Amino acid sequence: MQVTVNRVVTIHYTLTDDSGTVLDQADAEQPLVYLHGAGNIIPGLEKALTDKQSGDQVNVTIAPVDAYGERVESMVQTVPRKMFQGIDDIEPGMRFQADGNTGPVLVSVTKVEDDQVTIDGNHPLAGETLTFAVEIADVRDATAEELEHGHVHGPGCQH
Ligand code: ZN
Q1: Rounded to the nearest whole angstrom, what is the distance from the C-alpha of residue 9 to the centroid of ligand 1?
Q2: For labelling alongside 1, which of 9, 90, 111, 158 has CA 20 to 30 A away?
Q3: How much is the pTM?
Q4: Which of 8, 13, 53, 16 is nearest to 34 (CA)?
């Protein structure tokens, strides 16, 4: 079956950055199942899989603009440690939800120095050129309920 809008697609993939480091993997035991055309996955990958068939292998390299966007340096800020009241140990790698101009944003702590904490509101993969090696394992029509909700139902879906 062909990958088109409003179909549920099961893929296995290996994601690498431009130095060949493996960033993420989805195999037959834990495949990625998504609703095609609903913006469930990054635009560059959705575009590359459109009109392919189940069983196809797809290799695609995606620029940041069609993945997680370019890094925005103004989203990196140094703030006083006292803004993190009630948290005893602040360490690089911790993630917090913060209030942004357009709603909540997820920020990562990148550096802790004395009374100063550096936080980064960029997506961890912003600015990265990503290469996906994909195998399309299965394609099926979405149910009416899945289309209404804009996502796939099945194991792990909370309703
Ligand atoms: Zn739902």
Answers
A1: 16
A2: 158
A3: 0.81
A4: 8
